[in-house]
Amino acid sequence: MTPPFDPATYVPRHFRWAFDATGRGGVATITIDRPDKKNPLTFDSYAELRDTFRALSYMPAVKSVVVTGSGGNFCSGGDVHEIIGPLVRMKMPGLIEFTRMTGDLIKAMRACPQPIVAAIDGICAGAGAAIAMASDLRLGTQRSRVAFLFVRVGLAGCDMGACAILPRIIGQGRTSELLYTGRAMTAEEAVAWGFYNRIVPSETVLADAQALARSIADGPNFAHAMTKKMLHREWDMGVDAAIEAEAQAQAICMATEDFRRAYEAFAAKQTPRFEGN
Prior knowledge:
- This protein is of the alpha/beta class.
- It has helices spanning about 45-55, 80-85, 90-110, 125-135, 160-170, 170-180, 185-190, 205-215, 220-235, 240-255, 255-265; strands at about 15-20, 25-30, 60-70, 115-120, 125, 135-140, 145, 185, 200.
- The protein has two domains: about 15-215, Alpha-Beta Complex (2-enoyl-CoA Hydratase, Chain A, domain 1); about 220-265, Orthogonal Bundle (Lyase 2-enoyl-coa Hydratase, Chain  A, domain 2), CATH 1.10.12.
- It contains eleven helices and nine strands.
- Strand 1 (about 15-20) and strand 2 (about 25-30) form a beta hairpin.
């Protein structure tokens, strides 16, 4: 795939893509669609997801993204037969190529300028939990279960950025428990610990996530992209460096037409219209 592709006509091979261009900004929905197996990933679907999120950096028509799964589950992780089986027969060069590819998916999600909303129902495990973790916002349901279960197959919990990202969401101690035990985080724990932004009914989780993504898409997209970039960059900055970086980022936003239009709308007691420039 050569970016950018047309979001209105894009047809991926290994998941479903829908693009809603109504409103002031387009919302893309990615649906992992293997419901008979609770939506596991394959080598090919990992790669296509990675490439799609990379391409989003070149697609200004897409203002926000929703990630979900079909059939009442989010994603059960790597397919046991199509991924785990081949991995046990690979030599080190192939193994490191695979683990770097899965990590590149998370990097692409964090690097794309669009805020990502995960709509999580049912099983959300392994790589699926990592995809949810890498999203910017997460809506869950009462029946959802999130498990970083790498330890259950004899692997370390440090997979796809979990040891770096998850503690920043739920804390070091809670992360340690989940990664050492592989147990599932309940919906109540997920919302209390800050992994979920909120719990919604299973029957409306996708619609609620899309509505949230729509509200973001209709906002100041250039500023949203800057916020996402700074949230990521400031993980390894000291306070002084972060304040200086934010000063520069905010000054850049102040030079946009969105900022000028917002001021003029405020002065005229009107609702501002953001166009992402």
